[in-house]
Amino acid sequence: MSIVPPIAMSDPPAILGGPPAFPEGLQFLRPSVPPKERVLRDVETILSSGNLTNGPFVRRLEERAAEYLGVRHCVAVSSCTAGLMLVIRAAGLSGDALLPSFTFAATAHAAAWNQLRPVFADVDPKTLTLSPDASARTMGVRTSLILATHTFGTPCAVEELSALAGNSGIKLVFDAAHAFGSRHAGAPVGGFGDAEVFSLSPTKVLVASEGGIIATNDDLLAGRCRIGRDYANPGDYDCLFVGLNARMSEIHAAIAQASLEGLEQRIEHRNELAGLYIRALANVPGISFPLVPPGRRGYRDQALLRATRPLHAGLSVTIRQERELVRYRGGGRSRPHFASVELDGQRGTTESGPGHRADSAISCLREALSSRPESH
Ligand SMILES: Cc1ncc(COP(=O)(O)O)c(C=O)c1O
Question: Which of 20, 85, 71, 82 is nearest to 246 (CA)?
Answer without folding.
Answer: 82
